[in-house]
Amino acid sequence: MTNPPQSEKSHTEKLVALVGNPNTGKTTLFNALTGFRQRVGNYPGVTVEKKTGHLALGESKRSDVVIQDLPGAYSLSANSADEAVVLDVLLGSQADSRPPDAILVVLDATSMGRNLFLASQVLDLGKPVVVALTMVDLAESEGLDVDVSALSRELGCPAVPVVASKGVGLEQLGVAIQDVFSKVPENRCPSFPDCVCAEMDGLAKSVNESNPALSFSQSRTELLQTILDPGGYHEERLAQRCGKGLAEELAERRKRIEDSGESIVEVEARIRYAWVDRVREQVVSRTSPLRQPASEKVDRILTHRVFGLVIFAVMMGACFQSIYAWATPIMDAIDTGIEFLRVFVGGWLPDGAVRSLVVDGVISGVGAVLVFLPQILILFLFLAILEDCGYMSRAAFLLDRWMGMFGLNGKSFIPLLSSFACAVPGILATRTIEDRRDRFVTILIAPLMSCSARLPVYILLIGAFVPSTALLGGLINLQAAVLFGMYVLGVVVAIAMAAVLKRTTFRGQPRSFLMELPTYKMPSVKTVLYRMYEQGKAFCVTAGTIIFAVSIVIWALGYYPRSADVAKKYDGQRKDIDARLAEKFDGLAETTSILLTEGTIADNPSILSVLDAITEAETRFRESVRDGGLRQDSAEWTRAKRVAEDATQKAVASAGQFGNLGLQVYRLKQQANLDRREIDRTEAGTYLRQSFLGRMGRLIEPAVEPLGWDWRIGMAIIASFPAREVVIATLGTIYNLGADENENSTRLREKLHAAQWPDGKPVFNLAVALSIMVFFALCCQCGGTLAAIRRETNSWRWPIFTFVYMTGLAYVLAYATYHVADWLA
Amino acid sequence: MFELTGLQRLTKGEAARIAGVEGSHSSSKRLADFGFREGVQVTMVRPGATCIVRIDGRCLGLGTEHQASVRLSTETC
To answer: Domain-by-domain residue ranges, chain B?
Structure first.
């Protein structure tokens, strides 16, 4: 497994771009040629990142040829963002990628017509080309015979049949690739009418004369597309470099072509397909009659208007149910691991700012994100299976009609589905949507889908403030219904927003649906696991780095300034506790009739062994409550409590005269510990109130009061703007508990219940909890999402717009929710 | 003799040859990218507002506008 450097500066290395239609086995071939495993998807356009690997020949030979995998493309006219990437790489204008020295074109033997269309455009680029003919075995089984030597002769370049999954033909293909650099390309391309050729020559000449610095590549594909695709990507690209005058020149050239009796719209398709048909005639012959493919039989049910939708709904239901059901035990395990790390590192570092930064800032912050990894992995397990077997495009097909009702087409569905895990991959997945307006609307509404980072907030607040009442005769629980309601809220607002955007800024009919429904296949275990690994890694790295930075900033704002007076005050209180404990021990020593032969009352071995026995009983009780998830005063809880009390009594009884004394010492020490902890909490709270974050919280209190929130909730919200995951940790800190609370913390729940306004009224009630949840459901609190929107729209305008509209909506609807719920209550 | 008919006219399982592709420039260009061109056989797999057709050995999902853009020949296949 090898990865070349991003900027292939070495001149000894040859770069080969891998191009082909989606679903032609292109990525499987890339993996086989490079030995570099990566995601293989049936859904068109799954490969979006730049993937490179050294061509591996034989057992362990690593060549100087670097292969670069590209997204699947149907044409080089760059109709979608994905196809634009392909074109930019092939023309050498893609950032961090030099022009390829040769192009490896994948042709699917079962679908030669459409594949040859793209191949003809690639041949027109004038670069050395090698053709890999895939799906040869499938073509044979479908009764198609492909004459490879005729194909090579007709295209003027080497062609090699391969079955990548079985390693057939790879050696020959590798040799053909290595040989191609030394030969002058003899690509045989379709001939265009003289009037078109004259305009191509004229354009190349005029561009190079007026912009000599541009060194316009003059490939036939580029010239043709610029002239024949008015307003298309090629014209836009050249206009950016040439400036004014190009539009007028192109209009004149197009007019001259039309005047010669050729149609701008049809000429390319007509000429290329005439060439394709001629080549196909020479190369492909049918040996047995066409049969109905098995995929179509499966599609009779899966794409059925009624059954198809029902099956889809059941699959989605099962998917979300599994995310929550399967993820919980793993999440708990990660939580325990993080807690262990906190205690371990916290015990090892000296008390002070560094420990606070590492433990409260970094470990808690980054840990808060890592907890969501199981959910992300499970969601991507489902998505990878659905994609790899070819189902995703069927789902997009089924939902096209429904998406059309609010101005989008079925292609927007897949990015929106991905956004339930995380909006960032969802936004990246919009690259396959051809229409710019549809793509932008999908990007702008994707963050409204309730992502996995919102879940902990829902769980904390629903658990604390929504009663667990059975509804519909016990069919559903009110808590589950509210949770589901939060997801529905995001979807409903997204639909409304899409409808508004499609009637205003992005006015226009949705682009008519056009999508390939690839042949179904068994999902590959390796592919699915690799996809999970890849996404899990990306999640940890990207989210982890953002959270890491945010955690440090929030920690610093919440930690500084540190007043020495505060430390002095609470240190004094701690000393008082120690002094009082010592006094109580003295009093106990005086009143007891027991003569201590060894040590004092605080360190007598007999008393210490009683303390150990009681502590052990208490620890066992706490563990059984935690492990069994026992609710206070439940039958199991009472039973466990009784066991602990019996063990304590037994320890006291068996210690003879030291028993009762040990028990009293234990209680005094326990009380002192509780007092010390209370002082720690109050001290942390005082520091926080005086910190920069605390001051900001008080500053924004007038703005959040109408939503029913106090300054502490406001602060937690400020802290969670860069990444909403941090809110639980921030709430924990704010309510004087330290930043180690997670959403299952009963103490945090209790503390939220106990929080009061200055007039003694409780801060939290159902209305406040609902208002916070509605705010979280709609607000754009994710730096990663905004960065992805900036990258994908290439403008700051849209992330700013998304932030403003989502935050505005969140505020207004949280306000309405609070007042309606308050009035109803 | 050609008659102007869109793909919507095809019933389930029915096949026809394409007589041409019309509509907006970008739409017809995209259809051409996917293999819709004169003389090619297209089979209706699932009719509807968004339909499934088989062309060039592969199945494609097609929205209403694209269906209307494809002119069919009256020749039977």
So the answer is: 7-76
